[in-house]
Design brief:
Elements lengths: L4 H19 L1 E5 L3 H12 L4 E5 L12 E4 L11 E6 L4 H14 L5 E4 L3 H10 L3 E4 L1 H14 L28 H24 L4 H12 L14 H39 L9 E4 L3 H12 L4 E5 L7 H7 L3 E3 L5 H6 L7 E4 L4 H14 L4 E5 L3 H10 L5 E2 L1 H27 L1
Parallel strand pairs: 1-2, 1-4, 2-3, 4-5, 5-6, 7-8, 7-10, 8-9, 10-11, 11-12
Helix pairs in contact: 1-14, 2-14, 5-9, 5-14, 6-7, 6-8
Length: 424
């Protein structure tokens, strides 16, 4: 068989490109969920993959890919790499590793994951051959898109099943740690000064304690004074009065702040939501915040369920004045308070698979016609939910990110092929 000149050249170039690809390797820094799933995906696609992290051993057995222990601050042995992925769970570590790799290998393509996409955009202005993705933003888009997906046939008709009533046990009252520290300081100070005045001023234990209390409360009846006391006693007495007034003010301020925060939580987080057609979001982490922002951008009404009133992103939610229920979303009462029976959809994106699963199952029983979207790390579990429990919208944020990162490798191969063609 004869192959024309142009076709023969094209075939030769393709073979040469494949040989180069087989000799080079893809480096993945980090054994996070995203890193391990990306390694599996690229290995299945025929790529040579090496995963690098700080532990001496990989957290799981390599499946066709190589694992080596490495120092992220001074990466070495990347001479044969054609692309580097930096996908740890820490933005700061990803950025620091990126700068270290870029310093040692100026032309090596780098792709990283960042929760804060604004940082990625700023880095892209200063670094060449650099790109990034935000797993939380990718997952948020996927979760929100599921709200508008056509319903599977099995979701078209269901009967509402009432769950037995559950009682939400009140959480035990806990003292504010700052208040506790102030009280301990107050007690320690009074004990120390009582001992001092007992020995220095020859007072009985009761009189010494009485004298310290009058100083600390600034009452000063005058029956015991430091007018004729020694200089050290006068200095300690003066410092005691100043410290006592300051510490008392701090204690009252902390108590007032604690009571005010509890009142805000009770008034903001315990009311029953009276609306319909809204989207209920459970879990306020980085993914949950992106989901809320995306829903608001699409004009949806949002209600939030969060177990921690002092969570990292809760100030943002309070600023947006989004209806919020502070409570356990696994309980029927909490779901009802959030208006689940009248909600368009429920999106549960906590960081625990079993919690999301329990919330999803309860939601399906309470309101079968409400769309349920779950964040599930385990793709096998997600598939089982679809096949066995008729929960058709269970996604893994790490799988979504790994898929997007794998596409970047394919894009890099196409670019290399185009450059090879142009050079000939």
């Amino acid at each position: 068989m004869y192959i024309g000149g142009a076709d023969s050249s094209q075939a030769t170039q393709t073979v040469n490109l494949r040989n180069i690809m087989s000799q080079s390797e893809i480096i993945i820094f980090g054994t996070s969920h995203v890193g391990l799933r990306l390694a599996r995906r690229l290995t299945l696609n025929g790529h040579r993959v090496r995963v690098m992290d700080r532990p001496l051993e990989s957290p799981e057995s390599p499946e066709g890919w190589e694992y080596t222990s490495a120092d992220f601050t001074s990466p070495t042995k990347l001479d044969h790499a054609r692309m580097v992925f930096i996908v740890t769970d820490e933005d700061k570590l990803n950025i620091r590793t990126t700068l270290a790799v870029r310093s040692a290998y100026p032309a090596l393509p780098i792709v990283i994951t960042l929760v804060q996409s604004r940082l990625g955009k700023k880095l892209a202005r200063h670094l060449e051959h650099f790109s990034f993705i935000s797993p939380s933003e990718l997952a948020a888009d996927k979760f929100v898109d599921a709200v508008y997906a056509p319903p599977p046939p099995s979701e078209l008709a269901h009967k509402i099943i009432e769950l037995p009533s559950e009682t939400e046990l009140p959480k035990p009252w806990q003292i504010d740690p700052l208040v506790l520290r102030a009280v301990i300081f107050f007690a320690g100070l009074s004990l120390f000064t009582t001992v001092y005045f007992h020995y220095a001023e020859k007072l009985s234990w009761v009189d010494a304690w009485y004298f310290v209390v009058t100083l600390m409360t600034t009452v000063g009846f005058g029956d015991i004074s430091l007018r004729t006391a020694s200089t050290p006693s006068k200095v300690i007495g003066t410092l005691l009065m100043i410290a006592s007034v300051t510490n008392t003010a701090i204690i009252f301020a902390l108590i007032t702040d604690s009571l005010l925060r509890r009142r805000i939580v009770l008034s903001f987080g315990r009311k029953r939501v009276k609306q319909s057609g809204h989207v209920l979001v459970v879990g306020m982490g980085s993914v949950g915040l992106k989901v809320v922002e995306e829903l608001l951008a699409r004009g949806e009404r949002v209600t939030l369920i969060e177990g921690d009133a002092n969570g990292r992103f809760m100030p943002t939610i309070y600023t947006l004045r989004i209806p919020t229920i502070i409570g356990d979303a696994k309980l029927e009462r909490t779901l009802r308070d959030a208006g689940l029976p009248n909600a368009k959809a429920l999106i549960s994106v906590t960081s625990d698979d079993l919690t999301n699963l329990e919330i999803g199952l309860n939601a399906k029983l309470l309101s079968p016609n409400t769309r349920v979207v779950l964040r599930i790390y385990d793709h096998v579990l997600a598939q089982a939910l679809d096949e066995r429990l008729e929960i058709h919208f269970a996604f893994s944020a790490s799988s979504i990110a790994a898929e997007e990162l794998a596409k970047m490798v394919q894009g890099d191969e196409r670019e290399r092929g185009d450059e090879k063609n142009e050079s000939h």
